[in-house]
Amino acid sequence: MLADTKMWLQFLPSLLLLLTAAAQAASFCPEDHVISPCTCLNDHDGASVSCFGSYMSAAEMTAIVGRLQNTTMSRLHIGGFGDLTEIPAGMFSGLKIVSLRVSDSSRPTMNEQSFAGIRGLTELIMSGLQMTEVPSVIFPSVSHVEYLHLSYNRFTTLPDRIFSPFTRLRRLFLL
Ligand SMILES: *[C@@H]1O[C@H](CO)[C@@H](O)[C@H](O)[C@H]1NC(C)=O
Fold first, then answer.
1. Would you call 46 exposed, middle or buried from its count of C-beta atoms within 10 A (0-12, 13-18, 19+)?
2. pTM of the model
3. Is 69 in the pocket of ligand 1 (CB under 6 A)?
4. Domain for residue 47, yes or no?
5. Residue 16 lies in a domain
6. What CATH number is attached to the domain comprising 51?
7. For residue range 129-170, what is the model confidence (pLDDT) as tens digits?
8. What's the domain range around 72?
9. Cα 130 to ligand 1 centroid, rounded to whole Å
10. Is the distance from the beta carbon of residue 31 to the nearest atom of ligand 1 less than 6 Å?
């Protein structure tokens, strides 16, 4: 019995090495300095980057997002700071990402190209942005999403057929 245990113990270091290698294989996050002051966690399907509450300008934000082009991304969360005055044209262009959340900022301006070129998006969350109008100008670029969250805004009207570009929509959150 003791001999058995000893035998297994001698394999323990190799087993630990194997486990470490497996854990590293699932590492998608870029090095900290690449995305600082944003932070990153490894999801099973890609990097989950949070730039929430990190004060920075739209230009700084765009630069960081640009450095994520070659990263396998699952989620990106931007917001929680007042300086995000706009979502510039092409900010997410080329980015392949499952879920994008822009939240808790003060009504950033957006145009037709703000979300142009984003790939693989399934979920778009734009909550707490103090928007008074539905941001339909961006809808053609994100019309393939299945989950659209527009909660905690200040919409006063919902024009007819405003969500008609979304042909795959499964859930819409407005409240
Ligand atoms: C992404 O990869 C391409 C091809 O290897 C490279 O030219 C480009 O500089 C990379 N972009 C970033 C932001 O790392």
1. buried
2. 0.84
3. yes
4. yes
5. no
6. 3.80.10.10
7. 999 999 999 999 999 999 999 999 999 999 999 999 999 999
8. 27-173
9. 36
10. no
